[in-house]
Model the fold of this input.
Amino acid sequence: MKAESIVSKTEVRRAKLHVMIDQLTQLCKDASHPDDLRELLDDVMAFHDKTLEMQLQLEAALTGEERDQEAKHWVALSERTQIARREARARIRQMEGSLSDCSASSNDLGHHSNSKTSVKERLPELKMPVFSGE
Done:
């Protein structure tokens, strides 16, 4: 009975992980900001780790062919997770690069819309008058 309960819970978690990976893959195509993608990626990886814990419990409760079959399912899902993770990280880097390109081109236009760029500008150096002391 306990093994059946673990099997059921693990299957549900694996199905949810598949859905989360699908969402991550879709967000890689649709995301407008890297933080959105990074947040979902963190959630997927945390859920993957918790599912791994349950998977290990399941494999410990099973024997022989059943355990081998469950291990094969996990390996395939884990590989899919890693592929999605690499794609998401590449997309985040790409998005961050294009964001910095946009800010660099706006600086080239001479616009000083944020306070950080105007702080970087130096004021002319003031010289105090010098008296001879007489």
